[in-house]
């Protein structure tokens, strides 16, 4: 282990940059490994990961319809384009936004 107590501010800054870079690399490696594992599991069950994601999205909607619009301020807010527009969308449109700005 490195004794950082004797490092200068510049050396500490350089070390921080290296650590941040490595953390990003490790995070990407972990996500890639998780994705590969999920694809392998899906394949064993005869489906693609994309089909599973689509099924999950459809089951999240009471109508089974996939959302067509998403609130960039809160990604949990979605709308399928059916029925009344949700309040978050109505407010955004009243403020001058274009509905296509929210298309998924």
Automatic annotation (TrEMBL):
> Where would one find coiled-coil regions in this protein?
9-44
User: Where is this chain's protein located in or outside the cell?
Assistant: Cytoplasm, Nucleoid
The record ties this protein, via SUPFAM superfamilies, to: H-NS histone-like proteins (SSF81273)
Where in the numbering of this chain does the DNA-binding protein H-NS-like C-terminal domain appear? 58-104
InterPro entries, per database record: H-NS_C_dom, H-NS_C_dom_sf
Listed under GO cellular component are: cytosol; nucleoid; protein-DNA complex
- What SMART domains does the entry give? HNS (SM00528)
Spell out the molecular function terms from Gene Ontology. bent DNA binding; DNA-binding transcription repressor activity; minor groove of adenine-thymine-rich DNA binding; transcription cis-regulatory region binding
What Gene3D superfamilies does its record include? Histone-like protein H-NS, C-terminal domain (4.10.430.10)
- Give the matching Pfam families: Histone_HNS (PF00816)
- UniProtKB keywords: Coiled coil, Cytoplasm, DNA-binding
Disordered, as annotated region? 58-81
**Which family does the record claim for this protein?**
Belongs to the histone-like protein H-NS family.
Q: Under what name is this protein listed?
A: H-NS histone family protein
Lineage, top ranks: Bacteria, Pseudomonadati, Pseudomonadota, Alphaproteobacteria, Rhodobacterales
């Amino acid at each position: 282990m490195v004794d950082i107590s004797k490092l200068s501010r510049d050396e500490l800054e350089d070390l921080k940059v290296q650590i941040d870079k490595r953390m990003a690399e490790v995070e990407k490696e972990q996500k890639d490994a998780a994705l590969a594992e999920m694809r392998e599991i899906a394949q064993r069950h005869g489906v693609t990961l994309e089909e599973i994601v689509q099924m999950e999205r459809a089951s999240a909607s009471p109508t089974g319809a996939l959302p067509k619009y998403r609130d960039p301020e809160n990604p949990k807010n979605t709308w399928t384009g059916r029925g009344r527009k949700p309040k978050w969308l109505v407010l955004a449109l009243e403020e001058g936004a274009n509905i296509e700005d929210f298309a998924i």
